[in-house]
Structure formats: C-alpha cells, structure tokens
Automatic annotation (TrEMBL):
The keyword Cytoplasm applies. It comes from Sulfurimonas autotrophica (strain ATCC BAA-671 / DSM 16294 / JCM 11897 / OK10). This is GTPase Era. InterPro entries: G_ERA_dom (IPR030388), GTP-bd (IPR006073), GTPase_Era-like (IPR005662), KH_dom-like_a/b (IPR015946), KH_dom_type_2 (IPR004044), KH_sf_prok-type (IPR009019), P-loop_NTPase (IPR027417), Small_GTP-bd (IPR005225). Belongs to the TRAFAC class TrmE-Era-EngA-EngB-Septin-like GTPase superfamily. Era GTPase family.
C-alpha cells in the first residue's frame, strides 16, 4: 500500500519555506533569499519517503497585499492552502504566536497541519524550549510540532515520517524518478531572480522579473536566453552597472546555479528591458504567468 498527496508549505515571508523544500528534495530548484517576499508563484518538489510520495508545494509568504503583484502572491498562497492534503506551517523560532493565530483563522480548521519551528540553529536551547512551550495551548489544532535547522538537516526525518503518516492511501501521482513537475524555464527564471536578489539592493529586485525566452540544448552545453524586466528607466543603470559589471555578476551567479542543477555547461545571455508599471499592469502580469483568474 502506498501513500501520496500534496503538502503546502505556508508561512510568513522569509520563514524558510523554499529553503526547506530544496533541502528535503536534496536539490536546489526553488529560489531563496535573505530578503522577504522572494517567492512569487507556487512551485513543487516531489519527495519519495519510504512508501510515500510527498508533493511539496512552495508558496509566497502570507503578507499584507499592496500592489497587484502582491495580491497575486497572496492568492497563490491561499489557493495552495485550500487545495492540499496537509499543510506544513513554518514559524521561525523567534516569531511570536501572533502570526500562527492569524493562520489558524484563515485555515479555520479546513486542512490539518503540522507546525515546523524553523531556524532553531539561531537560538539557545532555552529559547527553543520556550518557543515550543508557547504553542502548547494550540495543541488541539495541530498534528505535530517539529523543530528544524535546515543547514544541519535537523528534524528532516521526523518531519517526513509524520507527513507520510498523515497522507491518504493512494497510488503515486507522479513518476517516482521526477524531482518536480515545474518547467525547466521557470526554475531557471527563479535562479536569475535569486541572483538579482543577491546582487542588487533596495527596491529593484521587487520591481523586476525574469522571462526565459529560449533554451537551446546542444551536446556539451545549454544556451539560455533570458530577459530581465524592470519598472523604470532609472533602474537600467543599476541592473547593468558600471561597464556592465552588475549584470555580469548576476549572469555568472545564475549560470552557476543552472549548471549545478543540469550537471552541464551553460551559456546565459541576459537582456534588460523596461516595462513601465508592470507590477500594476493586469494584462502584462497575466502575460508573464501571474494569472489568478481575476
Ligand atoms: N540559519 C538558518 N537560516 C535559514 C533556515 N531556513 C531558512 N533560512 C534562511 O532564511 C532566509 C529565507 O529563506 P527562504 O527559504 O527564502 O524563505 P521563504 O519562507 O521561502 O520566504 P518567501 O519566499 O519570501 O516567502 C534565507 O536566507 C535562508 O537561508 C534555517 O533553518 N536556519
Ligand atoms: Mg520562498
């Protein structure tokens, strides 16, 4: 008898959702950043654990909506919450339970959940015990609480065991050899975005996006052509940098991430284009894949 199901990773921006998904998969496919609001679209990772196929769904952090793009991001998270077999709610160990209470209100008992207390490597034992204690009063609401330190893979096996236990009996939903059902172009676009988040400060990462125009696969090398979209003409100089040094750094970093995943040499060509006000342009957002049906 096998088990299979969808497990949505839900939590505040920067809680560690994408990092946890990559770590459980053992491959980097989702972009991660020190800056909040990195993930914009749902993505998934297919993790086999004993007789269970766990399909993790990474989501944008639950946050206050502002721009239309943020509204899309919030809708993505809410959709993933309603449409899964189990929720893993990530709470950084330093967070108060206030955020968790908000999550309980939104979920309203609809989908059962496990709490993952993340980033426990950043606090003392004493603080960890205190944080665990602060969730005691909600014990009727969650299936389990698992403390996790992703860099040391602490808590990973416990988490996979308890998830598998909570999944429905089902045949496998994907080929067990598959890592994800995402398109390669979406994963690569995430890597370029991650490189922008790493190399460029202030608002530019939030006002830019990346489209993979084409991927040409040759025997020893993949050639990838991508466009970075920015909101304002004035951001062009920032993204490109003096003598092109910023865009070169972005390209090098993204190319290395691509090569690590593909195990193959890559050539990455980056173009920069200005699309005024794109984060508020409903039609354009739809065109580049941010379609929440509204
Ligand atoms: N020390 C430590 N850092 C962590 C851990 N988990 C995540 N991080 C770091 O926390 C930051 C945010 O991680 P992400 O995985 O991008 O967070 P997220 O929840 O996906 O954030 P959004 O996509 O913005 O919603 C990154 O700098 C990670 O390296 C952990 O267990 N320990
Ligand atoms: Mg993320």
């Amino acid at each position: 008898m096998t088990k299979a199901g969808f497990v949505s990773l839900i939590g505040r921006p920067n809680a560690g959702k994408s990092t946890l998904m990559n770590s459980l998969l053992g491959e980097k496919i989702a972009m991660v950043s020190q800056k909040a609001n990195a993930t914009r679209k749902r993505s998934n990772a297919i993790v086999m654990h004993e007789n269970a196929q766990i399909i993790f769904v990474d989501t944008p952090g639950l946050h206050e909506k502002e721009k239309m793009l943020n509204q899309f991001m919030l809708d993505e998270a809410l959709k993933a919450m309603g449409d899964c077999d189990l929720i893993v709610y990530l709470a950084p160990v330093t967070d108060s339970t206030e955020h968790y209470e908000k999550f309980l209100q939104i979920n309203n008992g609809r989908v059962k959940h496990i709490i993952v207390l993340s980033k426990i490597d950043q606090v003392s034992q004493e603080k960890l015990f205190k944080a665990i204690g602060s969730y005691n009063k909600y014990a009727d609401h969650f299936e389990a609480l698992i403390p996790v330190a992703i860099p040391r893979k602490v808590g990973h096996k416990d988490l996979l065991d308890i998830i598998a236990k909570n999944l429905p009996d089902s045949p496998y939903l994907y080929d067990p050899e598959d890592l994800t059902s995402e398109l390669v172009r979406d994963i690569y676009a995430g890597f370029v975005r991650e490189a922008i988040f790493e190399n460029i400060s202030d608002e530019v990462p939030y006002e830019s996006d990346v489209i993979i125009d084409s991927i040409e696969e040759e025997a020893g090398i993949d050639r990838i052509y991508a466009t970075i979209i920015i909101e304002k003409e004035s951001q062009k100089g920032i993204i490109i940098g003096k003598g092109g040094e910023a865009v070169k750094r972005i390209g090098k970093s993204a190319r290395e991430k691509i090569e690590r995943l593909s195990g193959k040499k890559a050539y990455l060509n980056l173009q920069v284009t200005v699309k005024k006000g794109w984060t508020k342009d409903k039609n354009f957002l739809k065109e580049i894949g941010y379609d929440n049906g509204k």
